[in-house]
Amino acid sequence: METQVKAIRIEKHGGPEVLKLVTVDVPAPQNNEVTIRQKAVGLNFIDIYFRTGLYPHPLPHGLGFEASGVVEAVGGDVKHLKVGDRVAYGQSPLGAYAEARNVPADRVVKIPRNVSFEQAAALMLKGLTVQYLFRQTYRLQGGETILFHAAAGGVGLIACQWAKALGVKLIGTASTPEKAALAKANGAWEVIDYSREDVVERVKELTNGKKVPVVYDGVGKDTWLTSLDCLEPRGLMVSFGNASGPVEGVNLGILASKGSLYVTRPSLGTHVATLEKMQAAAEELFGLVSKKKISINIGQRFALADAGAAQAALAGRKTTGATILTLD
């Protein structure tokens, strides 16, 4: 049974104006898929990278990787989900900006009763990102002091709360006093306002000259050198995003001169490559949400038709916390 739904598609790369609301067919799910009638969709910087062509993908295509909803149909080989289940996903093929769609079942997890559709849609990609950063890329034990850029963003506010839950001192960076206060309210130990303060000098002050063992950097080009200068010898630079543009033209010798540093460019997909790994990461995330250790701050809500305006707000640093598209 095919159904017709509204979805966002792009036919060329460009600004927010290339996002078009169109009608698409949703066929019956394949054996390894489920059909999800979506309730809320999460917005992320990676959506903008695909819109502009920074991350290439054959055109035309949809956008978005993260949403929540109710299972409407189940493929023949799917065992862990059934019709009517409340579910979410944060690592699907492109195309989450839609009223309904088919998703590979191994990307989909059930949502606990005490987590809402809006929370789940805002949480999955960002929350699973923090899970792999803090629990897999550099496994925080508690007691560390770390640096996390853009601490008042969607990923950053979850990171602040998760660090606090682990007993980790998170030093955040933010661009305004208001954003710094928001990160602090969410559990950051200290926040550096980089528009007014020297990040490296402040990190040295806060750590009594020792600096930090790990920097989590989703900003990219603008913070690359600053991040390296905040690391202690043999520290790890985790470059996980490009909000200011990609890091390019790196001379590896800089890692030697700044203290035999390590650098990694991880992505979520590698860390949740199987259903088992996806479920384990999601269970740790939802466990903290259920215990009220992590609450998701949804700063902005837009209709599906206004996805372009939502992306413009995100790219223009006009948002705090998470941004979602609502479908009810």
From TrEMBL:
* The name this protein goes by in its record: Quinone oxidoreductase
NCBIfam families on file: PRK10754.1
Sorted alphabetically, the Gene Ontology cellular component annotations on this record are: cytosol
Q: What are the record keywords, sorted?
A: NADP, Oxidoreductase
A Pfam family cross-referenced in the UniProt record is ADH_zinc_N
Q: Provide the species name.
A: Parapusillimonas granuli
InterPro entries, alphabetized: ADH-like_C (IPR013149), ADH-like_N (IPR013154), ER (IPR020843), GroES-like_sf (IPR011032), NAD(P)-bd_dom_sf (IPR036291), QOR-like (IPR047618), Quin_OxRdtase/zeta-crystal_CS (IPR002364)
Q: Domain Enoyl reductase (ER): where?
A: 14-325
What SMART domains does this protein's entry cite?
PKS_ER
List all membrane-crossing ranges.
none
| Entry keyword NADP | yes
One Gene Ontology molecular-function label: quinone reductase (NADPH) activity
Which SUPFAM superfamilies is this protein grouped with? GroES-like, NAD(P)-binding Rossmann-fold domains
- Keyword Oxidoreductase tagged: yes
